[in-house]
Amino acid sequence: MSTVEMEVFSNGQLLVLTVLMLVGGEVFLSLIGLASKWSKLRKQAAHKSRRVEIHHVAELEMPPAAAADIDNPTSTADDETSKSLEHVHDTRLRRDAVRSLFFVVLAILLAVHVLGAGAIVAYIVHASPAARRTLRDKALNVWTFAVFTTVSTFSSCGYMPTNENMIVFKQDTGLQLLLVPQALVGNTLFPPLLAACVRTAAAATRRVELRETVKQGGELTGYYHLLPARRCAMLAATVVGFLAVQVAMLCGMEWGGALRGMSPWEKVSNAVFLAVNSRHTGESTLDLSTLAPAILVLFVLMMYLPPYTTWLPFGESSSVKDHPREETQGVRLLKSTLLSQLSYLAIFVIAICVTEREKLKEDPLNFNLLSIVVEVVSAYGNVGFSMGYSCSRQISPDGMCTDRWTGFAGRWSDSGKLILILVMLFGRMKKFSMKAGKSWKLS
């Protein structure tokens, strides 16, 4: 979130901001954590190796008479030695696994930034005269812009060296599509990319520690971003599902609104770019204040969710202990697919914003998001509070309007009232769905 215009910064200041964004990024910080753990495990392995060597020396120098006084001296010494050697082996395996993972993450970090910045420069120089003209008018160096934008996008900072963020490039679909994969692999899709790279490295090098890392995942290395293969697959599917919902809503509600004046391909590209950036990256090609309130509520929900939110119906929550035997697999799958209470409230608010979208534009002082949220939560909790409706708050006064002692919902359309009835029924029976959403992993 910028508090000053970005174009006031000089080229050198932009480079300083670039370094700050890089070292503050999630992947870079996790790389520092891996380096620290590697150093710690290396010291532990060296210390345990010295202890085993000292133990062997002590056995060799023990007098025969002293050894005879001990019951079963040979078996006891062998057991202790084997345990010590096993501990040393485990520590060395973890050390080697952490070291290999460190180099894999470092390779990903370098590859994304080098290839990303190079691709942006090549695109601007050889394929986009409009982008070259924009940078020239703003006195921005092409390489500075490319490196700054790549680091900001991968680190999920959302800064751009232009005052208008990406709005100035809203018709440059090529640049948008170059930034989309950088935003994804730097945030929501980093675990699937990391897992694929680890598997590729294990197959190419056949190193023992990499094969064990593939088998045990984060349990061996303690690396938070290294998720199991099934979790990675479901994470990717969840991300695609969220993107599809957002793109469909943006195209459906803003095709002739905020996206007006663009070609069909440009509209789709802008919708995809906004949908991707709503998950923590924050770059925008449109003025968010011009979007429909329903889309803003959806964006709020997407921003609320952690980056690795995953629908995982085949995890630990599906154990036999948690479900009666008479329940079929289909029933268990249906129960695990249900959402949390907060998710349903957000969906209801979005639906009402869709049905009342015209009044939200024409009468914003009465029909605003806060009033709708209060009405929906009040209906869900069977409370009955209402913000009410006042003719005096109308921006364009209607001579036929009269104040009545009715709730705010009394001014809604029939569709909106029907949705509110469903909210009240759902809230009345919420005890039957309070334990829902077990298959959604918010971590």
From TrEMBL:
Family note: Belongs to the TrkH potassium transport family. HKT (TC 2.A.38.3) subfamily.
- Which Gene Ontology cellular component terms are annotated? membrane
The answer, when asked if Membrane is one of the entry's keywords, is yes
Q: Name one Pfam family in it.
A: TrkH
Keyword annotations: Ion transport, Membrane, Transmembrane, Transmembrane helix, Transport
Membrane topology term reads: Multi-pass membrane protein
* Gene Ontology molecular-function annotations: monoatomic cation transmembrane transporter activity
InterPro entries from the entry?
Cat_transpt, TrkH_K-transport
Q: Which residues cross the membrane?
A: 12-34, 101-125, 233-253, 288-305, 338-355, 367-389
Task: Return the protein name.
Answer: Uncharacterized protein
Has keyword Transmembrane helix?
A: yes
Q: Which compartment or compartments is the protein found in?
A: Membrane
Q: What's any GO biological process attached to this entry?
A: inorganic cation transmembrane transport
